[in-house]
Design brief:
- The chain is of the alpha+beta class.
- It is 38% helix and 18% strand.
- It contains 15 helices and 14 strands.
- Helix 2 (159-180) links the parallel strand 11 (150-154) and strand 12.
- It is elongated.
- The termini are far apart.
Length: 504
């Protein structure tokens, strides 16, 4: 046999062996498990139902579904429960994944990618191919316009308005993508509502007060690559541009270890707004005239006062414009890359711009012709300790004899200093975008003119600011009652004496 024929024979043998081994591995991996049918059904806003109908010669031990929500980097995993069984080898199972809480909310229009993992008692396992479905708001029948990357879902005879929103987003991607160094090739899905009552029911669960006070015209769910837009708003193009910029900021500057502070995130979103209004500029001018500028770069979150929110947006847009115009687009891209690596703004800004956050803010204030914000006094910014009442030994009998005559009174907390109300000139309603995971109002800072040490506290906590969902907006806050430690100490003393008396 010639050398050539020997080589050909060996190649054929190796190929056949490989095919046989591949077939054997496939049988060992999946056995004869057969997926008869499967699917995912959206029941917005309550949740998603996953179903699987499986058959096998051996008893099915478990069926699980692994799914990815939008473009999140971390997936979810749920086990299905049997609905019907045909002797253990034939199983119909399902699981309902709830989305009707703030923590598990999924925005309508989100792409859900899922697959099933099925295992029998013999250890055979079948992993199905990934499938996709869109978690739509089931109240309406949706149509779409798309350019291949951006898709806008709408309902009703408003295709022209949906196309306008699509065009605004595509234009913004072309402007803000290069400025931020953000990728613009991943899909972006938009759900457009025609009026506020429609959109209100699609937003994340929040307090009734916030929904009465704020009309949400747009909301970005950056990690999922999803936008909600109020198409009936007068400035729908600007809203769409603002919200899609949040997605670009997330892609360019937010990583596993850190996030972009709200003042920079919202400032960039307003910088990218194709239809800016005058309300934020008017609020900024008013704050300058009344000496009520906020310590903007010390604020990791938005203020809780709705009047301060308008000033916050005006300041954020102004300082971002200053950063781009004075230092150039390359520096902004470098800042995003540095923050993406896990560094906070407090660390990244000096590395990129050569100045601290407060120095950057004061350079911006120089441009406006206003007074500098003074560096906070760290010592005076610390909480003032309250003396703990001295505890003396006493008996329960003496306490009973004396009654309440000599009981130590617990002082009531001193009333908080009343901040002056900031009332801007009449302006158009601010574009308010509610956040999916609100930041506590306790983290919000007040104007520098009325809270001299607010900047120090905000700067210290900025390093540890928790990551949000990526949705922009004014947080809904509350306050927790303080624990009076002097009363705790008295109760502890009484308990100790009682225990001592029992042992005696």
């Amino acid at each position: 046999m010639s050398y050539f024929r020997i080589v050909v024979a060996l190649v054929v043998a190796v190929t056949a062996l490989g095919a046989f081994m591949g077939q054997a591995w496939g049988q060992a991996g999946g056995g004869d498990i057969e997926l008869l049918s499967s699917g995912a059904t959206g029941e917005f806003p309550e949740g998603i139902r996953f179903d699987a109908d499986v058959r096998s010669s051996a008893e099915i031990e478990e069926i699980a579904v692994r799914f990815r929500i939008g473009q999140r980097t971390v997936g979810a995993y749920e086990y299905l429960e049997a609905d019907e069984s045909g002797g253990g080898a034939s199983v119909r199972a399902s699981v309902f994944y709830r989305t009707n809480t703030a923590a598990r909310y999924i925005a309508p229009g989100t792409i859900i990618t899922y697959n099933f993992e099925i295992e029998d008692v013999n250890g055979n396992r079948l992993d199905t191919e990934p499938a996709e479905f869109i978690y739509h708001d089931g109240r309406y029948e949706w149509d779409e316009v798309s350019n291949g990357i951006v898709t806008v879902s709408y309902h009703g005879p408003v295709s022209f308005r949906a196309q306008d929103v699509l065009d605004a987003i595509v234009e913004t991607l072309g402007i803000m993508g290069p400025l931020l160094g953000a990728g613009v090739d991943e899909p972006i899905r938009v759900t457009m509502y025609n009026n506020w009552p429609e959109m209100r029911e699609a937003l994340p669960p929040s307090s009734a007060v916030s929904r009465r006070q704020l009309v949400t015209e747009g909301q970005a769910h950056s990690a999922e690559g999803v936008l909600l837009v109020l198409g009936g708003a007068a400035r729908a193009r600007g809203i769409a541009a603002h919200e899609v910029t949040h997605i670009l900021v997330h892609r360019a500057g937010e990583g596993v270890l850190g996030n972009v502070p709200s003042w920079l995130n919202e400032g960039l979103a307003e910088y990218g707004n194709l239809q800016p209004g005058e309300s934020y500029d008017n609020a900024l001018e008013f704050a300058i005239r009344t000496d009520n500028l906020l310590p903007i770069t010390a604020m990791a979150a938005q203020p809780g006062n709705p009047q301060d929110v308008i000033i916050f947006y005006g300041q954020a847009r102004s300082i971002v414009r200053f950063m781009v115009e004075e230092y150039g687009e390359e520096k902004m891209r470098e800042l995003m890359v540095t923050m993406k690596s896990g560094k906070s703004a407090r660390t990244a800004v000096p590395l990129v711009y050569g100045v601290t956050l407060i120095e950057l803010e004061n350079l911006w204030r120089d441009k406006l012709g206003v007074a500098h914000r003074q560096a906070p006094d760290e010592a005076s910014a610390l909480p003032t300790p309250l003396p703990t009442p001295k505890l003396e030994l006493f008996s329960l009998d003496s306490l009973r004899d004396k009654g309440n005559a000599e009981a130590t009174a617990v002082p009531a907390p001193a009333p908080a200093a009343t901040l002056p109300t900031v009332t801007p000139e009449p302006v158009a309603a601010a574009v308010s975008t509610a956040t999916a995971t609100p930041a506590p109002a306790a983290r919000a800072e007040r104007p520098a003119a009325t809270a001299s040490n607010a900047g120090a506290a905000a700067e210290r906590q900025q390093e540890f600011e928790p990551r949000g969902s990526g949705a922009c907006g004014a947080p809904v806050g509350g306050s927790a009652g303080a624990v009076e430690m002097s009363s705790v100490a008295i109760l502890a003393g009484v308990a100790w004496l009682w225990a001592r008396r029992r042992r005696g």
